[in-house]
Amino acid sequence: MSAYTKELQQRFPSAAIEQLGSKQMAIVAQPDGTTNLVSYETVVGCKQNGCWYLTTKKYSITTSKQLTQFARTVPNVEWVDI
Predict the structure, then answer these.
(1) How far apart are CA 14 and CA 70, in angstroms?
(2) Residue 47: which of 20, 23, 71 has the closest Cα?
(3) Alpha-carbon 67 to chain mean position
(4) Side by side, which strands form the sheet with 25-29?
(5) CA 37 to chain centre
């Protein structure tokens, strides 16, 4: 388990965490069904009814690249202003 995953596990103790590659990005699935996409410490997307809603807000070049790469790997993506 990476240091990043351990940090997220402390923030979300009951969640299932899936780190995406070696990046500082992970899918955090809560027991209540809430699924978020987290980049570094910021929630940048969520999954509802099988659709990923990803933010159009610019945080950093790295986060923007990570979001674009993630969007290419999953079906049903909508970009929203969150």
Answers:
(1) 24
(2) 71
(3) 8
(4) 16-19, 25-29, 35-39, 42-48, 51-55, 77-80
(5) 1
- 23-69 pLDDT, tens per residue? 899 999 999 999 999 999 899 999 999 999 999 999 999 999 999 99
Cα 76 to Cα 14: distance, rounded to the nearest angstrom: 27
The alpha carbon torsion through 38, 3, 15, 48 (nearest 10 deg) reads 20
- Residues in the chain, how many? 82
Q: How many CA atoms lie within 13 A of 18 on its CB side?
A: 8
Q: pTM, whole model, 2 decimals? A: 0.90
Contacts 24+ apart (CB under 8 A), 38-44: 38/8, 39/63, 39/66, 39/67, 41/11
Structure tokens of 34?
A: 């809430």
Tokens representing residue 11 in the block = 């923030």
